[in-house]
């Protein structure tokens, strides 16, 4: 199958001429060969799934995480990704127990797995089928959705889950974690509850309530997971319920009946439990997606209550995320029984397909200048712009409305209908710039997003990793631009260090900052930096008049000039120019 078609599946419809360079990158040169029973060999990894360029003949020897030097330039090219950093995954974990390096499949995929009796990874869906008897219908559904080879996390996580083990799966953003838990879920459920070929149905046993439950932090993500489930559900009458605020109550009433899978946010599920609209005692397969977010203080209590309601003796649990800080790891350890822990690449690291820049803007005024400059010159479109609150999202959206771009917004002050429509417009390619809050930071998969702008600096490394992970997905490349002001300095150091690791030019002094007072991670996350409102900043200095003049073809402001000094923006990398594509955006499917 054509590699490019594979990568655009479920994401962007690319204009091949416009993205000629990227197309060339994903073109396969040879047929994959599978010689071992794992189906994995250095030569066998198809280029289009070689998200980390494993198969490019790189050295696979483990490297200690303790080496703190920068990566070689070649290893951090935004187009080529890296093989170097990912070797760290094979190293020793926090507790000192070493990752299982015995498997060739694991070392080729840069997978570190810890736990007892870890099954071999499977580099091919056919091999999974031979080993675990995946149904032909599931294989056909994978093929019809152009999913021909498993990604690294899928190679390892699917066998573990099919062996009914608990699992903590950590893999970078955009590497296919959803399918890693959805595929075994369907295989383990076997057939829909309503199906007559189920042994229970033949014995006349009555079953009520969902057998599988997927919990995730936002309704947008729940909707996206629902769509992913529907891809594998084709051909059978699976009863899958989306349990979120946007879903109709008549739909949700079905949860007490013959339902196979429920997908929802902790709050909605908990509300339904309290209203006796759902019972979870029949759940045997439980997934926490974006687990660190679900297990932290925002959702932690609700998630634990949901977990307590899943009382089936055969309950199998798995948690997935691109990041799992130690606090969440500790909770996960308590929750999971004899789990296998799988790390693909380096835990808590940003996607290597994203070219990152860090720009000092001095003040909020400088920041608005910098953004307008970016939008007026070579913006990586379509893009997401992250701000720290819904108020600021509304303000910045209002400001950008006057620019020559299709702008949209998404935040929690919008109704469910508005949020659904906003996501749909983005998927259809009608939106070039979306101003959003953290609501969009986790899990959302708009395959064709070219750029992410951190307009307001994120307060945690995890927040940064997830935000910029909205681009550079499924092997594509992307650009992440991060602005900061003097007010962001307490949060700067770890994120500056992370960006510095990728060879981006960053202001030197950001690396020399003293360690800030140690804040608990939830304190960091909750702490909102006090900022002048966007409206005030724009009205005073860089307001609508300039933007309107530009929009109406006025000669003066084709390109806003940076102010310099403390109020001006100094962009510290040229990576933006490298990947900003001009021309027409042909839309997301
Ligand atoms: N085996 C595969 N082959 C090709 N594409 C795949 C495969 N598995 C998943 N994808 C695609 O990769 C993209 C990213 O997948 P997904 O959203 O599951 O990533 P993720 O790891 O969960 O990311 P995040 O950490 O941001 O939640 C999706 O468009 C998905 O359809």
From TrEMBL:
**Ranges of residues in domain Helicase C-terminal:** 370-514
Any one GO molecular-function label of the UniProt entry: RNA binding
Keywords for this protein:
ATP-binding, Helicase, Hydrolase, Nucleotide-binding, RNA-binding
Matching InterPro entries, A to Z?
Answer: DDX52/Rok1_DEADc, DEAD/DEAH_box_helicase_dom, DEAD_box_RNA_helicase, Helicase_ATP-bd, Helicase_C-like, P-loop_NTPase, RNA-helicase_DEAD-box_CS
Sorted alphabetically, the Gene Ontology BP terms of this entry are: maturation of SSU-rRNA
Q: Broadest EC class? A: hydrolase
Q: Where would one find the signal peptide in this protein?
A: none
Q: Where is the Helicase ATP-binding domain?
A: 158-342
Q: List, as start-end ranges, the regions of compositional bias called Basic residues.
A: 547-558
GO CC, sorted alphabetically, is: cytosol
Q: Which reaction does it catalyse?
A: ATP + H2O = ADP + phosphate + H(+)
Which CDD domains is this protein grouped with? Answer: DEADc_DDX52 (cd17957), SF2_C_DEAD (cd18787)
Q: Where is this region: Disordered?
A: 56-75, 517-589
| Top-level taxon | Eukaryota
Under which EC number(s) is this enzyme classified?
Answer: 3.6.4.13
Q: Which residue ranges have biased composition labelled Acidic residues?
A: 579-589
Q: Which SMART domains match?
A: DEXDc (SM00487), HELICc (SM00490)
Among PANTHER family, the record links this protein to: ATP-DEPENDENT RNA HELICASE RHLE-RELATED (PTHR47959), RNA HELICASE (PTHR47959:SF15)
Please give the family membership noted in the entry: Belongs to the DEAD box helicase family. DDX52/ROK1 subfamily.
Please state what the protein is called.
RNA helicase
Which species does this protein come from?
Tulasnella calospora MUT 4182
């Amino acid at each position: 199958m054509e590699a490019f078609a594979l990568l655009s599946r479920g994401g962007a419809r690319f204009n091949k001429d416009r993205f000629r360079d990227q197309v060339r990158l994903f073109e396969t040169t040879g047929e994959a060969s599978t010689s071992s029973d794992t189906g994995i060999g250095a030569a066998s990894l198809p280029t289009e799934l070689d998200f980390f360029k494993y198969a490019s003949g790189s050295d696979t020897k483990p490297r200690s995480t303790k080496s703190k030097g920068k990566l070689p330039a070649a290893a951090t090219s935004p187009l080529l990704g890296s093989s170097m950093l990912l070797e760290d995954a094979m190293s020793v974990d926090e507790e000192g127990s070493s990752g299982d390096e015995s498997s060739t499949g694991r070392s080729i995929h840069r997978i570190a797995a810890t736990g007892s009796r870890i099954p071999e990874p499977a580099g091919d869906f056919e091999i999974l089928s031979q080993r675990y008897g995946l149904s032909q219908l599931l294989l056909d559904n994978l093929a019809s959705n152009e999913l021909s080879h498993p990604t690294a996390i899928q190679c390892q996580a699917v066998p573990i889950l099919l062996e009914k083990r608990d699992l903590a799966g950590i893999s970078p953003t955009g590497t296919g974690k959803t399918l890693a838990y959805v595929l075994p879920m369907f295989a383990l459920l076997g057939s829909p509850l309503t199906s007559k070929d189920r042994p229970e149905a033949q014995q006349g046993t009555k079953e009520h309530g969902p057998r599988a439950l997927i919990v995730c932090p936002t309704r947008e993500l729940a909707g996206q997971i629902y769509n992913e489930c529907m891809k594998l559900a084709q051909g059978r009458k699976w009863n899958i319920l989306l349990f979120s605020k946007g879903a109709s109550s008549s739909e949700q009433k079905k949860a007490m009946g013959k339902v196979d899978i429920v997908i929802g946010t902790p709050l909605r599920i908990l509300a339904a439990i309290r209203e006796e609209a759902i019972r979870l005692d029949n759940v045997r397969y439980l997934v926490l997606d974006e687990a660190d977010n679900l297990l932290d203080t925002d959702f932690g209590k609700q998630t634990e209550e949901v977990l307590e309601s899943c009382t089936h003796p055969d309950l199998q649990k798995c948690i997935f995320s691109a990041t799992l800080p130690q606090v969440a790891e500790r909770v996960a350890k308590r929750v999971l029984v004899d789990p296998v822990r799988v790390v693909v690449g380096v835990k808590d690291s940003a996607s290597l397909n994203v070219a990152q820049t860090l720009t000092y803007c001095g003040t909020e005024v400088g920041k608005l200048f910098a953004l307008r400059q970016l939008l007026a010159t070579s913006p990586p479109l379509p893009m997401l712009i992250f701000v720290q609150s819904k108020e600021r999202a509304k303000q910045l959206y209002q400001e950008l409305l006057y620019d020559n771009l299709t702008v949209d917004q998404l935040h929690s002050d919008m109704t469910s209908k508005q949020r659904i429509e906003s996501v749909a417009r983005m998927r259809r390619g009608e939106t070039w710039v979306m101003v959003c809050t953290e609501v969009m930071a986790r899990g959302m998969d708009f395959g064709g997003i070219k750029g992410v702008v951190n307009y307001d600096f994120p307060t945690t490394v995890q927040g940064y990793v997830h935000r910029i992970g909205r681009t550079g997905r499924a092997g594509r490349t992307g650009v992440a631009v991060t602005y900061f002001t003097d007010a962001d300095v307490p949060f700067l150091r770890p994120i500056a260090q992370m960006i510095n690791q990728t060879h981006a030019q960053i202001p030197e002094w950001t690396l020399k900052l003293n360690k800030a007072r140690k804040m608990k991670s939830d304190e960091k996350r909750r702490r909102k930096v006090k900022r002048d409102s966007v409206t005030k900043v724009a009205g005073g200095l860089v307001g609508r008049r300039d933007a309107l003049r530009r929009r109406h073809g006025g000669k003066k402001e084709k390109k806003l000039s940076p102010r310099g000094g403390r109020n001006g923006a100094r962009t510290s990398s040229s990576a933006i120019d490298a990947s900003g594509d001009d021309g027409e955006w042909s839309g997301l499917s």
